[in-house]
């Protein structure tokens, strides 16, 4: 079994107490914000079943979200909207959301473990490839970000644009979503830069 505390343990032993795991969700969506979370867990805490949010059922994620929020020393959330994503590109938007998440932490982290990214803050950090599957802190952040964004999709965003099925597909390019886009056109919350390649023959729509 993967040791999900190997990175944390290394930096705890090096003298860093408050280590924040950082991850994002919604990077590949056609609709809505990209959402990032930063989570600082207590030193030595082991959270059973915490793993990459994509490997967990929605019900399991919700349960683990509550546990993480209860146990964490600090949690920060950041988000960047579709208009800004179109303006600065998804990579820069992701980094901005991650920076916001770090800045929202109530306790200053001493070290950052980030899922395959860099964050523009003067804090020592490590970019971890597949971090959400190899670090408990990053996995916890992935769960918090995913549940946060899913709740927006199922609540506020779906209520705003009920014809698009946002609650069902969460803004990803499913068949239903593409069909509704062709029938109705994009909303102000759709990422126009993502759709030009999706509908090559229907470019006049966008």
Automatic annotation (TrEMBL):
Transmembrane segments: none annotated. Endonuclease that specifically degrades the RNA of RNA-DNA hybrids. Manganese or magnesium. Binds 1 divalent metal ion per monomer in the absence of substrate. May bind a second metal ion after substrate binding. Signal peptide: none annotated. It is found in: Cytoplasm. This is Ribonuclease HII. Residues 17-206 form the RNase H type-2 domain. The gene is rnhB. Belongs to the RNase HII family. Coiled coil: none annotated. It catalyses: Endonucleolytic cleavage to 5'-phosphomonoester. The keyword Metal-binding applies. It comes from Paenibacillus barengoltzii J12. Its EC number is 3.1.26.4. Its main location: cytoplasm.
């Amino acid at each position: 079994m993967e040791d999900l505390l190997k990175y944390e343990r290394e930096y705890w032993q090096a003298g860093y107490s408050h280590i924040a795991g950082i991850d994002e969700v919604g990077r590949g969506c056609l609709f809505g914000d990209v959402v990032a979370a930063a989570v600082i867990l207590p030193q030595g805490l082991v959270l059973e079943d915490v793993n990459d949010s994509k490997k967990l059922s929605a019900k399991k994620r919700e349960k683990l979200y509550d546990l993480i929020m209860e146990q964490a020393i600090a949690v920060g959330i950041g988000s960047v909207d579709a208009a800004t994503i179109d303006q600065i590109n998804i990579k820069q938007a992701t980094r901005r959301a991650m920076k916001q998440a770090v800045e929202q932490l109530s306790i200053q982290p001493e070290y950052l473990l980030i899922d395959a990214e860099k964050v523009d803050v003067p804090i020592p950090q490590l970019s971890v490839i597949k971090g959400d599957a190899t670090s408990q802190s990053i996995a916890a952040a992935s769960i918090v970000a995913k549940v946060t964004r899913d709740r927006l999709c199922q609540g506020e965003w779906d209520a705003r644009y009920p014809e698009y099925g946002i609650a069902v597909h969460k803004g990803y390019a499913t068949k239903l979503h593409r069909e509704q886009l062709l029938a109705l056109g994009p909303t102000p919350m759709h990422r126009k830069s993502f759709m030009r390649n999706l509908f090559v023959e229907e470019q006049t729509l966008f």
